[in-house]
Amino acid sequence: MNFFRGRYSLSVAIGAIFGALSRFYIAKLVESIFGQEWQFLGTFFVNISGCLIIAYIFTIVRENIRIIAPELGLMIATGFCGSYTTFSTYSLEVNKFLEQGNMTFGLIYWLGSVLGGMMALKIGVILARTGFPR
Description:
Blueprint: H1 6-34, H2 40-62, H3 70-84, H4 87-99, H5 103-130
Helix pairs in contact: 1-2, 1-3, 2-3, 2-4, 2-5, 4-5
């Protein structure tokens, strides 16, 4: 199997390092700007932007819009996005709002993340198909 070759594994690992660090620093930046009670906004941003990035990469590869090395695709989609997006943290945060009795905010955050993620995913597909960036 080609995917067990060292360069593919290394590509995923390198992407994962940058994804995890990006997630960490975005969360800290949001917390420093808005305060700890608004820390979930970092997760929200990461999930939405992660949807856009993964849609862009998969679309340009799947539709042969641009040729990229398999290692680069794995680095970005599997490595970076896999460690960057934070669905488990998002689920935990939604649950926290619901357990605190803040049903309205919990449901807005839950639905906003899903709808925002789908919109970002569609934008990623459109950007890839239009050749952005040139």
